[in-house]
Write a structure and sequence with these properties.
Layout: E1 13-16, H1 26-35, E2 40-46, H2 58-65, E3 71-77, H3 81-91, E4 95-99, H4 106-115, E5 119-124, E6 142-146, H5 159-162, H6 164-172, E7 177-181, H7 186-195, E8 199-202, H8 204-207, H9 212-223
Parallel strand pairs: 1-8, 2-3, 3-4, 4-5, 5-6, 6-7, 7-8
Length: 224
């Protein structure tokens, strides 16, 4: 299996989040979305400390890696990303996003992630000002703007947080992906794309539907 990579900036991509998938059928769920032509799958990693929920670890990632050629877009919602990023890369993730709120030396961690063969990104929570990532963002492959408070799926879209995408896009220009996560559906997808987002994380809007493929197509159409 060739090494999957994060798509280069310039295309609108849907990144289905397995947080809303059926964990008892995870390989099957990922196979379905892969058949829909997506290039990446979003892995929400939560530790029960930085966010009030616990999800998956490197062992699950390594097992899932055997069944998918998609780029694994991991979002580390954890208190110690420098400790665990290498473990997730070894397990098979292709991209690591970590939070500016917990990492005192983000540029060093970005360099370390790249040296281990993955792409790197920074994330900011809804209450975190864009200026917190102004110096770091241009050095990333992707910047993730949270439009809900991290920890659980199917939350309500926070319009004020979404507007931060405009400023992030101004900072990074056209060569860095801008990802959004939280409350994304066909309606909100149009809004965030108009702000400059090009990577749309969607969980419940895909896995909450009986026809996952049709749900992905609806999001694609909205993002055009």
């Amino acid at each position: 299996m060739s090494q999957p990579r994060l798509p280069k900036a310039g295309t609108i991509e849907i990144a289905p989040s397995i947080l809303s998938a059926d964990f008892a059928r995870l390989a099957e769920e990922v196979a379905v979305i892969e058949s829909a032509g997506v290039k990446m799958v979003h892995l929400d990693v939560m530790d029960g400390h930085f966010v009030p929920n616990i999800t998956i670890g490197p062992v699950v990632v390594s097992k899932l890696r055997k069944y998918s050629s998609l780029a694994f877009d991991s979002h580390l919602m954890i208190t110690d990303p420098a400790e665990y990023a290498p473990r997730f890369i070894e397990a098979g993730v292709n991209h690591v996003t970590f939070h500016i709120e917990v990492e005192p030396e983000p540029l060093c961690l970005i360099e370390r992630i790249r040296n281990l063969g993955a792409t790197a990104g920074i994330c900011l929570n809804p209450e975190t000002p864009v200026e917190a990532v102004r110096e770091v963002a241009p050095h990333c492959d992707m910047v993730l703007v949270m439009i809900v408070h991290p920890g659980f799926g199917a939350q309500k879209f926070i319009a004020e947080a979404a507007r931060k995408v405009v400023r992030v896009r101004e900072i990074v220009g056209s060569i860095v992906r801008v990802e959004v996560d939280g409350g994304i559906d066909a309606q909100t997808a149009r809004t965030v794309v108009s702000y400059g987002a090009d990577t749309l994380v969607a969980g419940n809007a895909i896995f909450g539907k009986a026809d996952r493929i049709a749900a992905i197509e609806a999001l694609r159409a909205a993002g055009r």
